[in-house]
Amino acid sequence: MDEQPRLMHSHTGVGMAGHPGLPQHLQEGTGGADGDGRKQDIGDILQQIMTITDQSLDEAQARKHALNCHRMKPALFNVLCEIKEKTVLSIRGAQEEEPPDPQLMRLDNMLLAEGVSGPEKGGGSAAAAAAAAASGGVGADNSAEHSDYRAKLSQIRQIYHTELEKYEQACNEFTTHVMNLLREQSRTRPISPKEIERMVSIIHRKFSSIQMQLKQSTCEAVMILRSRFLDARRKRRNFNKQATEILNEYFYSHLSNPYPSEEAKEELAKKCAITVAQVSNWFGNKRIRYKKNIGKFQEEANMYAARTAVNAANASSHGSQANSPSTPNSAGGYPSPCYQSDRRIQ
DNA sequence: GGTTATGATTTTGA
DNA sequence: TCAAAATCATAACC
């Protein structure tokens, strides 16, 4: 311990004369009449600094308290804060005004549209709804696919919100910690509230860039899920035999006018367990394919015509009127001059 | 693996 | 806006 002052003196004599951290008047002690006196001052100050660690905690606290209670301290800190604001911070401030990031806005909009962020939609996602609309309704398979889609989207949503919550919590904790630290430090060094505010905004920016990554990967996951779902939608499954028979029966028994009304389509759809749109598709395909190759469908037409005739005979023998096919047609009836669509009256 | 059948989608035209 | 026609994509069959 006794060595320290001597050591410090030897240092100051040569090395500390040009120390950048010392005030000018303390660095000018290389010669002149009062040069030795200044060296002595520097020595004293440095000795105080070096011995401060030897002081007890109570002593240090007492010194700190004395400094804090100094009558000139608030004024001095105010001046220093002002100088800081006018120099470094004001320069930074000009750079901090940034417009909202368009990429972030796009990500936010997409997450909102897909139902990942924002309030949860009861019916699932917009994509599922759009896909359902495009496929003309919700069949048994479709609804299974939709529920699968919704379940996966809900998983994504859950992960997204959990992660987001974690980030927000971490951000808040870190911000509070830094704010407390700065407030504490502001007692011993000049820190303006603006500076704290600026620090907080820097922290928020850092965390929002992490959030952006989260949003980006969530969007990617949704896009992959969506494309898989839409691909699945295109998968074709043949109707079951019974459904095909019901549709064929109707088609051949209405060969003169194979255009079922909306009510008839709905009924057929119900009977076949398919959608009205699928019924429309089926009739559209059947009409064009029959017309293109009547010969090929001749046998099929005859078979259904015979079956319809038998049904009608059975119905009349039971004393009831058959309400479906009014006039079973021969296979050659479509397309014939007598064929009239509901809309295309000749 | 090639062909045909068939459901779905897109384009065209009235 | 709807149906016809063309086309696509996949299931089913050999």
Automatic annotation (TrEMBL):
GO terms for cellular component: nucleus; transcription regulator complex. InterPro entries: HD (IPR001356), Homeobox_CS (IPR017970), Homeodomain-like_sf (IPR009057), KN_HD (IPR008422), PBX_PBC_dom (IPR005542), TALE_homeobox (IPR050224). Residues 230-293 form the Homeobox domain. Signal peptide: none annotated. Residues 316-330 have a biased composition (Polar residues). Residues 37-231 form the PBC domain. It comes from the Eukaryota. Keywords: Activator, Developmental protein, Differentiation, DNA-binding, Homeobox, Nucleus, Transcription, Transcription regulation. Residues 1-38, 313-346 are annotated as: Disordered. Residues 232-294 bind DNA. One of its GO terms (biological process) is cell differentiation. It holds the Pfam family Homeobox_KN. Belongs to the TALE/PBX homeobox family. This is Pre-B-cell leukemia transcription factor 1.
